[in-house]
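Example record

One chain of 367 residues, shown exactly as stored in the release files.
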Amino acid sequence: MTTASLELAVVVPVFNERANVPLLVDKLAQALAGVSWEAIFVDDDSPDGTADAARELARTDARVRVIQRIGRRGLSSACVEGMCATAAPVVAVIDGDLQHDEALLPRMLAAFRADATLELVVGSRFVAGGGTGAWDRDRVAKSALATRLSRRVLKADLSDPMSGYFAIRTDIVRRLAPDLSAIGFKILLDLMTTATRPLRFIELPYTFRVRTAGESKLDHVVAMEYLIALYDRMVGRVVPARFALFCVIGLIGVLPHMAVLSLLFLILDAEFRAAQIAATGVAMTFNFFLNNALTYRDRRLKGGRQLLDGWVSFCAACSVGAVANVGVSEFLYDAREGVWVVPALVGIAVSAVWNYALSSRFVWGRY
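Predicted structure tokens for this chain:
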């Protein structure tokens, strides 16, 4: 028995897209008639049963595959896992919300067939013939700003670097995968900035469609992830993005600390030591939940038990870091005979590194 060689894999990163899974598979079957293809749904353990919906289809359609990720999240990292899981020579990434026009896929594949040197085909909303559909003025303005920021780190004149719809030769993905940051939701930007030389690409127009089922994943945290991804591409090799964000949140935590300390000590006339202990506890709690939402969003703890265990572990780690801070700074202060600024800064740095290392391993790494 002979079968046609697999030509194209379509990676679909999904979260809470149960209703769209069968619709997308039907649309892919219609668009890719005559092509040997497979669809790989990479699901971040959706509570709505997205993975189960894909598995139900896979029982009767061998072209459908499922990767269900447990304990980790993130669109970029999901795309990387899906792209590295196929044997197809060309892999496309398409959203699971039906907003990307699947009818463009045959043209993408045809472009690779016609030019053996071509490495990347990007679905673009901003070349002639493309469009953003029903976007309002505010979303268009935000996308334009993000595009301008992206071009500061790109190695190519790409009209739509924010596109989440593209096809690439799979061997290139496998070569770049070890160096990808997999941060945020724009894997195309990650691929193009990781490549040691500009990738040979073309852009094909398509019009962005309106979501008909499910809920949009765009929020302020997603925008934050995008900025983090840009930071990582520019200076992340010097100061890792996750560590930088951890330190920024630590600085922000000074605000609730001082607010609680002022309230208890200056207004309610509490003993300074008691007020300081209470303020420290509030700051640690604030930092824990903000780090859980932002710094470790891809590993964030959920449920009462995980959050309680994580909070206790985080407070314990930071307490040890505080002891290290005091010990190192006091030692340097004694050695430098009264010079206090440098020892204080060194103590803070030691504490930050210690807290980050312990938190990454024993708070957000344990699950």
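Notes: The chain has two domains: 8-217, 241-363.
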